[in-house]
Structure formats: C-alpha cells, structure tokens
Design a protein that fits this description.
The chain is of the alpha+beta class. It has seven helices and 23 strands. Strands 12-13-14-15-17-16-19-18 form an eight-stranded mixed sheet, covered by helices on one side. Strands 11-10-9-20-21-22-23 form a seven-stranded mixed sheet. Strands 3, 4, 6, 7 and 8 form a five-stranded antiparallel sheet that branches. Helix 3 packs parallel to helix 5 and helix 6 runs parallel beside helix 7 (387-397). The N and C termini lie far apart (51 Å). The structure holds fe (ii) ion (FE2).
Length: 515
C-alpha cells in the first residue's frame, strides 16, 4: 500500500469508527436532516477509463460554516446506467467528517470505459440532485472525437454565470477549469452581486464560506452536474499573484503558509479532484489524464512551486532583450524541478496524437511596448517572468506530437503561435496556445474588441477578443477545432451565446488557422 492509499484508508477507518460510536449513542433514532444538506450541488471529475471522482459536501447552512457541527455523517452514493437511477451498477457509503467540512470524495472504480453514468448521494433522509458523468476511453483505443470545453476566472461579484448556463447546454464529454475558481478578496470593481461575507479570505472558515457562496450558484451547479471537470488552480484560490516556492523554514513566511494551507484545504473540500487531502500548505495537484491514444492532458500547477515574482523592471534597468534580468535567470522556476522533469519526460514519452499542456497563465511572449525596436515584457506573473522554464518546454515541443497549451487568467481570449525562439519571429512555430477569457471576471467589456490581424509588434498573436465566455473544442485524430464562445452579457442573469471565432489546428502543423 502506498502512502496515499494508506492515509486514505486510515482516514476512512477513523471515520467509520466514529460513525460506530455515533450509532451506539442513538441506536433507535435514524438521523434526519431538517434542512436540505445538498445546497452546493454535486460534481464529478478526473475521469479514468474505469472510474471517476464523485463529489458533494453536506452544508444545510452553506454561507455560515455549513451548519453541520463536528459529528461524522454516513453518506450513501449510487452510480447508475440510467438517469432514473433504477439500474444501479456501483454503490457504497462514505464517512463525511467535520475536519474536511463534511465534503465527500468517492473514487469510484469498476466502470466501463467511454460511457455515460448518472450518480446521486443520500444522507440523513435527504437526496441530492442527480449528476451525469462520463468515463474516459480505454487505453489503446483511438477515439474518433473528443468534445471538451475550457474556462477560467469566475469572479462571482463581477457578473452572473451566464457563460455557465450556456456551457451546461453544450454537448461535451469533459470540462477543464484553469483557475480562479473563487476570488479571495472583497467584492471590488463594478459589483453585480455582493458576497454575504465581505472582506478578505484568510482563515479556513473564510475560504469555506467563499467557496460555498460560489457553489450555491445554480448555473455553476448545472455545469458540474452535466460533465466531469478536470481542475487546476491559479492565484486567487489563495491570494492575488502569490508564488509558493518560498522557504518553508523561514519564520517570516509562517503567516503566508498558514493562509495557503487554509486555501488549499478549502479547494480540496470543494472540488472533484483525484488527489490526496492536503498536508498543511502542500497539495500535489499536477497530474496527467488520457483519452485513449487521441489526447493526453498534462494538468499543471503553476503556483505552488514557482520562484517569487520579480519586480517589474522598466528602463533603464531593462536588458537589451526586453526581459528583466531576473526573468531569464535559469535558477528561477515556474514549475519547480520535480514537476518540470515530470512534464518534460511526459511530453517526450507521450504516444498520444495530441498533447495538451493545461495550465493557468499566459505562456506566449507578448511585447507591450508600442515603440518599434523597443520591448517590454511585463508579464511577470505569467511565463514571461519564468523564461528559462518556458524555453525548456518549447525545446521539448519539437519532439512532441501536436503540442497545444491551454491557458486562462487574462480575462480576454488570445490565440498564439508558440515560437521556438520568440526573439526571432522567423523561427519555427513549435506549438499553439489557446487562452480562454473569463466566465465573469471584469464584467462586460466597456468597448467590445475582436481582432484577427496580427499586430506589428506581436506577429505570433493570431486572435484577440475581450468578451466573457468559454472555449468549446472538438478534437479529431487529424484536427483540433476551437470555437470561442461569447455571452451577450454577465450583468443580467440570462444571456445568449454565440461563436466569435473558430480556429483549427491540423495534425503536424503547429499554429492555429482561422476557419
Ligand atoms: Fe482571474
């Protein structure tokens, strides 16, 4: 038994032992909820060919700590072949405990590959909504199509989730969420709907209540109930622009690490991730998931191990290359040595037809200087602050089949050619980046902008658009098609959706082309 399996088994045994004690205290009175405990909906995630993670959290009072007290509660889970939940194929019980906010993470196995299933939970006489999920295709098969979407940045206070309402109606097998699932801060900017608890999240109780408020949204719940999700985080799950690669022994970092441990635990408690529970300020989130031989998704963690952000340097300190000296320092890292070695090895070894680097922040270079002959690469929070790691990945892309980077964080859409050497516009395009706008963050655009012509200073940029929405993809063995979907507004609870642009990437031809 490995360490993870041991820890999980120990936790389960402890929970069941506690349940036994609970049952002994009140043997003849079955426990009944007075209020619906399934206020946060249901979710599934991290699909494998034989299983999926099922999630819920018991929270009859979601906005004030959950209302569950500390006693463990037994939760029954069911997986069925049919939406009416008549033909149950797997079932079991899970001991939900107060130390994890009565969250439930069931790792179901023994399912058939590439199949739709339905699931629900029961506890204390209450029944959850029914969710739909889907397993991944079997290893060794070549699926003829994979339909997926990706999204990021869902600031609750800055807009309604009209993008989610439309996303839930798409015909998809899986959804990727690339970070900023919550915003830890107080509501700011143009506030469309306020938080019930204002201020900043710093304690575990604060983060839990913030997640709970996000997850009470019916449109967000509907996307979770419709498809399995594969999730990574960005900064706002803990704190704006934080960098986790700090010295854990340095007493000056103590407060930051306590806050991070709270943020990581609340993230774990609210998402359907296939990871061991966090150990203080550590949670191993990076992982890969495959869809037969068609696609492999390398899901990165660009926060936990990154070197501290460099200060933005302007002239005269700027180097001739336009980068801050620290940004190109090979001693600094975005991924940390372990994750970077895992990614480079995985990209080199992958037999998949398409290889997606699924992560939070902008990967490509973008020059923000308007003067010809001058450069400003001021994206110190994204990969422009970590040039050495980026170059190692770009170099590895030359030996990788169809590498595509999926990103978020910018609150606008971008499509980039990824150049082997960004300093030389004539160098080979070795990959493609599709960067998705926000679900709601920054609200409706003041002036709507959609641009297809590459700007003179940034010839690698193929598309820019500033609507709210998500990206819907169809992947076939020889072609990736990406539809940039835009909603008409996030200022009202109901909106229409339309396709602003469609780009395709053909097998063996890195770089996206407008369809
Ligand atoms: Fe964001």
């Amino acid at each position: 038994m490995n360490r993870r399996a041991f820890l999980e088994a120990s936790a389960r045994l402890a929970a069941l032992a506690a349940l036994g004690q609970l049952g002994a205290c009140i043997p003849s009175q079955p426990f009944k909820f007075e209020k619906d405990p399934f206020t946060l909906g249901v979710a599934s995630g991290d699909p494998l060919p034989d299983g999926v993670v099922l999630w819920t959290r018991l929270a009859p009072d979601p906005l004030t700590g959950g209302g569950m007290g500390t006693a463990p509660v037994e939760v029954e889970w069911l997986v069925a072949n049919d939406e009416a939940m008549k033909d149950v194929v797997r079932s079991g019980t899970y001991g939900a405990t107060g130390d994890l906010a009565h969250s439930v993470h069931v790792e179901v196995s023994g399912l058939e590959p590439d199949r739709v299933y339905w699931y629900r939970f029961r506890a204390g006489g209450a029944e959850s909504p029914i969710g739909q999920t889907r397993t991944a295709p079997a290893a060794g098969t070549m699926p003829q199509a994979l339909r997926f979407a990706f999204a990021s940045c869902q600031n609750y206070s800055q807009g309604y989730y009209t993008a989610h309402a439309n996303l839930a109606r798409e015909d998809l097998q899986v959804v990727f969420f690339l970070g900023d699932y919550i915003y830890e801060g107080t509501a700011r900017g143009d506030i469309v709907r306020d938080y019930s608890k204002r201020g900043w999240s710093f304690t575990l109780a604060d983060y839990r209540d913030r997640y709970a408020q996000y997850k009470t949204d019916r449109d967000l719940q509907s996307v979770h109930a419709a498809f399995p999700w594969i999730v990574t985080w960005d900064d706002h799950e803990v704190e704006n622009n934080y960098a986790g690669g700090i010295d854990k022994e340095d007493p000056r970092n103590k407060a930051a690490l306590i806050e991070r441990a709270a943020g990581y635990q609340a993230f774990y408690e609210h998402l359907p991730v296939r990871t061991p529970r966090p150990q203080g300020p550590e949670l191993k989130l990076y992982r890969s998931l495959s869809y037969g031989g068609l696609a492999k998704f390398f899901v990165l963690d660009t926060r936990q191990y990154r070197s501290p952000e460099v200060a933005l340097c302007r002239e005269p300190e700027q180097t001739p290359s336009g980068y801050c000296p620290a940004s190109v320092d090979p001693a600094r890292t975005m991924l940390g040595a372990e994750q970077r070695a895992w990614l480079l090895q995985g990209l080199g070894d992958s037999p998949s037809s398409w290889n997606f680097v699924t992560q939070s922040v902008r990967f490509a270079q973008q020059d923000s200087s308007s003067e010809l002959g001058k450069h400003i690469f001021d994206g110190v929070d994204n990969w422009m602050g970590y040039v050495a790691d980026r170059q190692m990945i770009l170099d590895r892309f030359t030996g990788t089949r169809n590498p595509v980077v999926l990103s978020g964080d910018s609150h606008v859409n971008f499509v980039y050619d990824l150049k082997r050497d960004f300093a030389d516009p004539a160098s080979a395009t070795v990959g493609t980046e599709l960067l998705v706008t926000s679900i709601s963050s920054d609200g409706d655009p003041f002036v709507e902008q959609t641009q297809f012509t590459p700007p003179l200073k940034n010839p690698q940029l193929r598309f820019f658009d500033n609507h709210r929405g998500y990206v819907r993809c169809t992947l076939e063995p020889t072609r990736l098609t990406a539809d940039f979907r835009a909603v008409s507004t996030v200022r009202k609870p109901i909106a229409t959706v339309s396709t602003t642009a469609t780009f395709v990437v053909d097998d063996g031809k890195p770089g996206a082309v407008r369809a």
